[in-house]
Known about the structure:
Blueprint: H1 6-14, E1 19-23, H2 59-68, E2 76-80, H3 90-100, E3 106-113, H4 120-127, E4 134-142, H5 146-151, H6 158-169, E5 175-181, H7 188-201, E6 205-210, E7 213-214, H8 218-225, H9 233-245, E8 251-254, E9 264-266, H10 273-288
Helix pairs in contact: 9-10
The structure holds iron/sulfur cluster (SF4).
Amino acid sequence: MLYKNLSSYLKEKYGGRMKKICIDGGFTCPNRDGTLGIGGCIYCSERGSGEHIDASVSIKDQVQRALANAADNDKCIAYFQNFTNTYAPISVLKARYDAALIDSRIRILAIGTRPDCIDGDIADLIASYKDRVDVWVELGLQTASDKTAEIINRGYKTEKYLEACSILHSRGIPTVTHIMIGLPGEGDRELEETLDTLDLSGTWGVKIHSVYVAKGTRLGKMCLEGSYTPISREDYVRRAAYAISRLPEKVIHRITGDCPKELLLAPEWNTDKNGVIRDINERLSAILSE
Ligand code: SF4
C-alpha cells in the first residue's frame, strides 16, 4: 500500500468495505443565502455537490432507499453531503441527523460543512452521537492561502479552519479536510502552504480534489472568458502525488474530483478518473522509491 487510504482503514476497523449513503439534508449555505454572500464559492454548483442525490424525498426515505440494496451484514456510512450540514439551529440539526440513523447497519455519521459553521454547541451535539456510531466532520478548506480564498470567494479566513479543528478535536471528533489542486493563481508554493496547514491542524483525513469546472458556475464563466485555465492532467498528477507523499500519517479519503459528466465544462481529463488515479499511484511510487 502506497499510502493510508480510506478503504484500507475501513477494512481494518470494520472488517470490510462499507456502503456510503450520500444524503441531501435540506440545508443551505451562508455563502449562498445572503448571510455572507449569494454567489457562493466560484466553483460551487447549484446543488452544492451531491448532484446525484434525490432530494425530493425525506432524509429517512433517502436512507431507506439506499438500504433497500444493502445486505443484512453490510455496514454503512451516512454522509451528509450537500451544502453546509451544520448550518441550522441545534434542534433542527439533531432532528436531521436522527432521521438518518434509523438502522443498525449505519456505523458512521459523516457530516460535511464549512469551518465557520462549527461552534462548541454544534460540536457537543455531534459528539453526543459517539455512543451510537462513529462520527467525523468534513471541512471544506480547499486552500490555506487567504489570497486564493478571496479569489474563490470562500468567505472565511484560514484561521477559522484551525479554530474549527481545535473545537472538534477537543471533543474527540476526527476531521477530514477537503483541499483542491488547481485553484486560480495557485502553484507549488500555495500547495506547500496548504500541506503545512494540514499538518498543523491535526486533521485525521484528507480529501484531495482536482478543480473541475461545472457548467453554470462563476468559475465556468471565468473559464469561458479565458481568465481561468484548468490545471493540466500532468500537473495535477504531479502535485497530487507530491501532496500524498507529504501526508504519510493522514488517511487519504480521495485523490480526484468527480463531476457528473453532464455538468462538466472542463477539463476533459476529469472523466478519466481511473486513469488519473493510476497515474498518481505510478508517480507516487516513483517519489517513494527515490
Ligand atoms: S461553502 Fe460549499 S456549499 Fe457553500 S458556497 Fe462554498 S462550495 Fe458551495
